[in-house]
Here is the input.
Amino acid sequence: MSGSFNLDFENELVNGGSSGKVPSFARAPPNSRAAPLPIGRRPADLCGRMLVIMPGIGTMNAEDLTLGILYRPNQSAISGIQRGEEIVKLLLVVSAILACLFGLMLILIPDKFYEPAGIAMTPMMATIAQAHGATLIGLGVINWFARNADRQGLIAVCTGNLVVQVLSLLVVLRTMQLGAGSAVAPGIAIHVILGALFGYFLAKLKRDFRGGVTSGM
Here is the structure.
């Protein structure tokens, strides 16, 4: 029984596919309303893992073959996701430039950098600031090259950047509490804005990834 079904299934896939007809298993019953498959869901319950021999093409997985018949992507949703990824890439470029800029300032002129906060920079303390600057430049380089990553890579780098912004914000608030006052307000603004943007787009990337929608970069 199983062998007969598989043979009929294979013949219908091959013959129906080559003639441009939709196989009977993919047609909706009479007087019924077709329910589209959720985006990203593969119709494994219909075709399993059978291998179909396609004349002149080779062997295909029946699941992949029927995907072209049963899977209809939501083009507007995909376009929206692609636009979101482009904005994330732009955010990574901007954050990379800022990180490298502040990193160079910390390495080259640490005393001038901390002067508005009222921090007296000794040569020994300057080495700590310079180490911080080196880390910022490294983060900037990572962000710059991560702009061309796939969605999983974007999720990883956005998560790291969000952690950096949150922890840096806490440090700046502590600096303000210790007496720096409004001199560190620009730092608070930068960390709040970047943290909010990374948090928003990270949530969006994760939501789209869980939805199973894939798109080219």
